[in-house]
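Bench notes, bay 3.
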Amino acid sequence: MASVGSIARVALAVFVAALMAAVASAAPHEPSPRLDPRQLSALPSYVQRVEAAIVSLQVEVPPDRPSALTLGTDRWGSGVVFDTVGYVLTVSYIVLDAQRIEATLRDGRKVPGHLVALDLEVGVGIVKLEGPGPWPVAALGDSTKVVAGDIVGTVGISDEGRLSASAGRVDAVRPFTAAWEYMLDRAFVVSPYNPAFGGAALVDAAGAVIGVTSLRLGEAPYANLAIPIEHFLPGRDELLAKGRVASRRPRPWLGLYTQTLEGRGIVVSGMSPVGPARAAGFRPGDVITRLNGEKVDTQEEFYRKLWQGGVEQEVQVVVQRDRGFEAITVRPVDRYRLFRMSGN
């Protein structure tokens, strides 16, 4: 049994320890360092990871080039550096037929660039920055696992040269067809809409690039269409080496702009000034009903049947015009022979 003296000594020790703790807590001490709000970013971390690799592209196209009439001669957009050598991935319509390209980096540097490759089937282009760098590089991710509902970020440069970054979700993963003889079997629809959509990087929750933002879709509130990076990666090395994916069979191209109208079918809305469709006799308002004798009701059906043939292999297109039908024979071409493949 403990003695009264030992109990008193223990109580005294507990009292002294408590007193010292109280004194220590009351003693003056150095304040914790406070972060400067100006050094904080409101952007999600996965957006911050790619920001340094985003560039603004200013593009000049000669007025006599095929795309100048429809896309203009002065273009701007975004791109993302994906290689330490200085290769920039962007959307093809920004750099198509480019004669002069200037890139502005996030650190303020302005450097010339030149077009080195186009993949018009996918819808992307590659620009090479001139100079030794160093070039900040973004990681390329895996887009094949992306599903509707995934969290993503869109990062581009506005027409005023400001970073335009937004967090959002993938609304849908679906096929996409467009007026200019273009189709993807898998594309991303992303919201909310980012106004700097042309060539902006689409990144996943880890900050890796999983797509190139291409278009604004629908009516307000808009959505963006993004080209999954999976369409670019298989042909990447060949694009850099040859300027196009030469091992892929070229798609026959007519130079037709069409739209699918409910209750009417595939309606011709216009023609490229250099495509064979114009010389063959197509007119705006023509309704395409058959291709090589087979009925077609949608753009997707029309494209798939057209692309089954070969370049320079004649096709017959039946159109409804006024109250009758016209059969038009046209010889498709390889459009890579018409558009500028290099800025040199």
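Next record in the batch:
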Amino acid sequence: MEHEELWFTAILNRLFGGLATALLETLGIHVESPAHPIPNHLAMQILVAGILMVLFWMIRRRLSVDKPGKLQHIMELLVDGLGTQAEEIIGHEGKRFLPLLFTLAVFIFICNVLGIIPTFATPTGQVTVTLGCALVAFCYYNYAGVRHHGLLHYLKTFMGPFVPLFFIMIPIEIVSHLARLLSLSVRLYANMMAGHLVTLVFIGLVPVLVPVVFEGLHIFVAMLQAFIFVLLTMVYLGGAVSEEH
């Protein structure tokens, strides 16, 4: 759900709106409002990317073996937790997928909770954003499968264990893989949108104290949905690089 233009979106449109409009028109994409081609959800994703770069830069500058800071402790716990989970689900080489899994986890979580801050919005409340994240996971696990097995052997996994039934199994496998895009994107979008609407309803009914409880619940759901998204990505990666195929 897009609202009126946010202040950060207005800044981006003022600085880069003309360039964005020219680029979109060059690609043959019609822009309804040439002065405001950058929507709120895209601006919020740019903001999240900027936050992450600054955060990681700060952690990088203060890395210490003897006296690690609080941020370093938190990141180490997150990396260790994701690494252990990846090894359990994907296999002994699961940690080599950790850069993508970690990036998805922190990006989605910050996107999920950004709307709690006044004058900002939750970009994952737009299905195009969650679909973009799902496409990243979808393309990556298929790429990992091709890289691990080779193109021909990976394509053979779509034929199922009983080769004579390949003409039945191939369409089923293709639909199954495409359904993963729907599963990843709609689940995240629906939960973030529902949480936002519930919070707005209670703010309208009881504007004091009660909304704080729901904001806390929203943070928990945001964390849970980021974890589920990454967990499912691990499952798909595990299936793509599995030797049982």
